[in-house]
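In the current project phase, we have settled on a layout for protein records. One protein thus recorded is set out beneath this paragraph:
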Amino acid sequence: MNADRKNSAEEIKNSQVISETGIPVCSVECEILRGKETAGKSNINTNQLPLHSISAARVAEIFNVEISKGLSEEEADQRLDAYGSNRLELRQRQKWWHLLLAQFSSIIVWLLAFAAVFSWLNDNQLESFAILVVLALNASIGFFIEWQAGRALDALKKATRTTTRVRRQGREQIIDAENLVAGDVVIFTAGDKVSADARIFESATLLADESTLTGESTAVEKNSAAVETSAPLAERCSMLYLGTNVVAGHAAAIVTATGQNTEIGRIGKMVAQAGEEKTPLEKKLADLGKRLVYIVLGIALIIFVVGIFRGEGLWLMLEVSISLAVAAVPEGLPAVTTLILALGVLRMARQNAIIRRLAAVETLGSTTVICTDKTGTLTENRMTVCEYRLANDRVIKIFENGGYDSVGETRTFVQDQSLLRLLRVSVFCNEATLDSKNGGSCQPIGDPTETALLTAVEKFGFDISSERSACEKVLEHPFDSATKRMIAILREKDEAKTCAVLKGAPAVVLDLCDKYVSNEGIQIPLTEEKRRDFLKINEEMADCALRVLAFADKDLSGESEFPTGKELEKDYTFLGFVGMSDPPRKGVAEAVKEAQSAGIRVVMLTGDQIKTAQAIARELNLSQTDEVFALHSGDLAEKDGEILASMARRAHVFARVTPEDKMRIVKALRQTGEIVAVTGDGVNDAPALKYADIGIAMGLRGTEVAKEASDIILTDDNFRTIVKAVEGGRTIYANIIKFVHLLFSDNLGEVLVIFVAVLAGFPLPLLPLQILWVNLVTDVFPALALALEPASPETMRRKPHPPDEALLSAKFLLLIFWKAVISSSIVIGAYSWALQTYGEGAHARTIALFTLIGVQLGNLFNCRSRSRSA
């Protein structure tokens, strides 16, 4: 049996052929093209076929499945063996030994390792052992932090398990989503997560939230009708995609792609193609290490040559040269850098940010541009009713705290029959529900737009359950993208009253109305002039980034039978508009302002409409002026190089962008020298997260693809946490500068002490082991104290340090050299006095040692600030 299954799997895997159109298709489709009977197993690698434009029946034939029964268990097992689990193979976690070896990649570490080997060969085992202890300490800290971060992410992924409802062998069952195969018949209802790409063959009032894939904040209507072959991803209404959610209605669909062959998998491959980028700190420390090696080798060579010309022995001068190398190389630099970054990781974890790479902490401090997604990042990804504009000119604002306000009016809503009628239409022309469990808060179920309407109705104290139980819905025409409206006929159970209620796009609803309600509650004929006035109000609301719906009703109590067709679509009374928006997250405006004061530009990248994005940008003050420079993705077409870079540097908003557009924008910004941070939560954000200098994913709403592509994960999805991280990164960078200042001025002072002593013909003032001990005691621990320095008040009121600025600028090097000259002069003076007083030997070296320690501890207080006196 196992052999048969294996052979069948091989047949399936090898059955791909090319059709006359050049498109790879399965053997079954090939037989269909030739007009023969289909037999055998289908090749499920059909992701290149335009299945959204093929009829559902044809898709069933392609995948060799009978819709009413589904696949057999045997066939499903064979396809699972042939093509693997329905699982995204994202970036693999590094092996432990890869992580460990990465800790030894610094050129400074290599230099120290060479010194340790030479000391061992020169019978200085104690000195060699001391150097190796420093190296082991540095490697252990870095390895432990990065390994623990990886384990935490693995545990997070294992904790999430998705199941799905399938039809197999004529019966429905629940299986693990990983066991889905192409050709499976899956059943979806409201609230389900779509577990694979699927072609719909049956649906009822189906709406899907595809914001994680396309960036659209509103739900998309889905049905089984084929669409144009050229339809973009966001308009393929006949398809459901892995990672999206069903928010209303129900559907049955055929799985067309699993795992890496899904749309998410395609984006995942784009992520995998991007290589690992070094952070600015890693680049600067690497550059510093190279400079240091050149300086050490130069000084050691000079001393070696001078000593040989003076007649000193070869091995003695080699030992002196190694001593200089030990003195010049800051042994504490790798260890203290790792510890400072590790402390930053712990501090950021307490502030709701998980750092996946140590050096990523500092990169945020260097950030000059934050490219952020709108939906779910700047906004709540939750539709909310903002205002009612009634036909009687009354305007009612809805507050987030649950209250409402009637603009220009003092009467309560109960006295306004027009509002009551509109609220009634909101309840009955609606398929959503508010589910209250155990007396707790209501959980909205259904389309976000419809749940927003119900939530707003509740704020007026309207009893939704009682209203719905008192009426019977005898007829319903669900919302359709073609008609852009929904109609229902209601009959009151206790009274013989019947009415029709209408909800839809403003222009459509107004076309079906011939009356409107006046201030006195009187129904007035709707003239063309008044119709234009209402449409103007609609445009005003749309310009404020509101999604506008219109409402109407008509009395059918005197009708002998229910109207149908054209009769049902006329003679309505217009009641008013409802404006909804996806509101900005709390604290985002303040966080944007703080980022701007720190010299960081915030740019919005969204798949939403340009007007909506502009309105949100104005509300958050992204441009710091009244004018928001926004670009549509169409404006970026065929733009490249300097033109695209110039557009990217000026724009505040990019609307309707695709994953490829996001990558191009990020690349263009980086080419201009910007340090780019990208925030996001959806699958469509992953490539940009990967290509950016620093990728920041949302932990609560973020997809696994986005998290895997990121450097930092925000556990609270709060944009403000990014600003805290920026402040933490800047503080870390400032503290790194402080301890580099300390280490290099101290170590250069030690080099000058030995250099001057050798040139002057003095005996070595310090032995190699003494130098190493001094560096460990007066470098590492004081540097750790500097690492704990708190942020200064000016941290978030200054511009980011230039991305291309060297860690050691010319001015900074001059300061370090000046301090080294002063400290070495003091030590040489003390050593000269000791030689005259005690002669050559341990006494003189001891005085030189303690003088050096005293000078370096004093220098510690100088290094706390370069602008304030110790």
Q: What stands out?
A: The first strand starts at residue 17 and ends at 18. The chain has a mean pLDDT of 77. The two ends are 82 Å apart (CA to CA). The chain has 29 helices and 29 strands.
